[in-house]
TrEMBL record:
InterPro entries in alphabetical order: BOD1/SHG1_dom, BOD1L1
Compartment(s) of residence: Chromosome
Domain BOD1/SHG1 positions: 10-104
One GO cellular component, as annotated: chromosome
Protein name: BOD1/SHG1 domain-containing protein
Family, similarity comment: Belongs to the BOD1 family.
UniProt entry keywords in alphabetical sequence: Chromosome
Amino acid sequence: MSTDSFVIEVVNKLKKQGLFDQFRKECLADVDTKPAYQNLQTRVTGEVSRYLSTVKWKQDINKNQLREHLRRHLNELPMLTAGIERVVDQVVKPKIFQSLKPQIDKVVCEHLNINYDAWLKGQSSG
């Protein structure tokens, strides 16, 4: 079995178990309590207000085009990328080792016909 097919099989098994949905829900439930998210939200809101203050409002303004220009403007800001990285550092990374990695380890062991509990004991003693 190739490495690619092994990874695909494991990922599909994890998806079927709902692991990624669970992980996403846990992260989303926790994100708005983190300072990095709150800071990013404040900065983006301010930048949106600044951008929209430069737009001359007309009754027939193309809102889709305006939305697209605003999206492009925000995506070009370095603060957005840096802010997202800080949110990931505060929300996602800690959860990877708490909840995601142990479940992935278990599925990989099952897939390779390795006793998970015995493998886990070997990991903690080595």
